[in-house]
UniProtKB/TrEMBL annotation:
Name of this chain's protein: Protein ABHD12B-like
Pfam families: Hydrolase_4 (PF12146)
Family annotation (InterPro entries): AB_hydrolase_fold, Hydrolase_4
Taxonomy, superkingdom: Eukaryota
Gene Ontology annotations of biological process type: monoacylglycerol catabolic process; phosphatidylserine catabolic process
Gene Ontology CC: one annotated term: endoplasmic reticulum membrane
GO molecular function, one term: monoacylglycerol lipase activity
Residue ranges constituting the Serine aminopeptidase S33 domain according to the UniProt record: 10-87
Entries under SUPFAM superfamilies matching the protein: alpha/beta-Hydrolases
């Protein structure tokens, strides 16, 4: 299942302004909706770029509610925390995920080969 960003506040043709709480609530809602219908298939949160903050925060909220996600994939997360801290308040993603998730050994950082840049990580051989 997918959520279309054009339906979220402030994206595409939608009105309103995106907020951290609003995007997190939307991600949690979509995850819970999917989880209710998935049977035994694992469900993961996949965030790209700024979406990595949303995915991490949603996973933290779900963990606090007692429903840890099966997996979190963070594609092209922030690489310069100082610049990200100034511009985006959803920060220190690895630390947040590590502190929020009960199974600490499952929180990992995967380094992609150089040359794929921000947009082409999906072309990595192990994806």
């Amino acid at each position: 299942y997918c959520v279309c960003l054009s339906l979220l506040p402030g994206f595409g043709d939608s009105t309103g302004k995106p907020t951290e709480d609003g995007l997190t609530a939307d991600a949690v809602c979509v995850y819970e909706w999917t989880e209710e219908r998935n049977g035994t298939t694992p469900v993961c949160l996949w965030g790209h770029s700024l979406g990595t903050g949303v995915a991490t925060n949603a996973a933290k909220v779900l963990e606090e509610k007692g429903f840890p996600v099966d997996a979190i994939i963070l594609e092209a997360p922030f690489t310069n925390i100082w610049v990200a801290r100034i511009n985006y308040p959803l920060l220190k993603l690895y630390e947040i995920a590590h502190s929020a998730y009960r199974n600490k050994e499952r929180v990992k950082t995967v380094i992609f080969p150089p040359g794929l840049q921000h947009t082409f990580l999906c072309k990595a051989p192990h994806c």
